[in-house]
Amino acid sequence: MPLQKNHLFFGYGHKLTNEQRKYIDSMIDNQLTVVNAFSGTGKTTLAVMVAKYLKRDLVYIFSPCEEKTLGFTPGTVQEKESKYIVPLKDALLEIGEIPDRVIISEDNIDNVKNGNAWVYTMSHVFARGINIKGNKFVIIDESQNFTRGELKKVLTRIHDDCIIVMIGHDGQCDINDKSKSGFVPYLNHFENEEYANVCKLNVNFRGKLATHADKLEWE
């Protein structure tokens, strides 16, 4: 389904690159979109926009890669997760949503009851044994920081009525042993499936400094 002038993205149309338009169309047309994107390309913001446009509840899944397990950090689950969902909150603000209003939490019961809250957040740590279904829009963010086993744990719990966007950047893995990352293996695993599509985003809108910094590589 091509981008329509009267929908959510029209106000941003003059800013969208051809790559971004293909990314948006892929999320609308396919069950799974895997995007390999540089920093600052709008990958998370555009995915959150599509979830809102399609009027689907959003499930945002992240990896607490700096810690052996999220369970060892103090506080409630919500407190443990808060620092990992900053990209999501930034994306919500960018599309005119108030994070504290639309993210489902124990402190947001009134908006949950009246239907204003439509965003779930969770770490893969707490994904064991769950079922993700009911026409959800699932974003697996910073997928390069998931191991193969962690991505398998998440992906095998998603039903076919959901749309999945697996966002990553193969050049910015924070896992100590980068060879354990599951992002590229799963990108290759899905790229020829009829229900999936692989996209790339290359334009960093943060500017020339951020773009040049992203080009430095090391072993």
Folded structure, characterized:
- By secondary structure, the chain is an alpha/beta fold.
- It has one domain (10-213): P-loop containing nucleotide triphosphate hydrolases (Rossmann fold), CATH 3.40.50.
- Helix content is 31%, strand content 15%.
- It has 9 helices and 6 strands, in the order αβαβααααββαβαβα.
- The chain has helices at residues 18-29, 43-53, 77-81, 86-94, 99-102, 109-113, 148-155, 183-190, 208-213, and strands at residues 32-37, 58-62, 119-123, 137-140, 163-168, 196-201.
- It has a 6-stranded parallel sheet, with helices on both faces.
- The chain starts with 17 loop residues before the first helix and ends in a 6-residue tail after the last helix.
Short description:
This protein is of the alpha/beta class and 219 residues long.
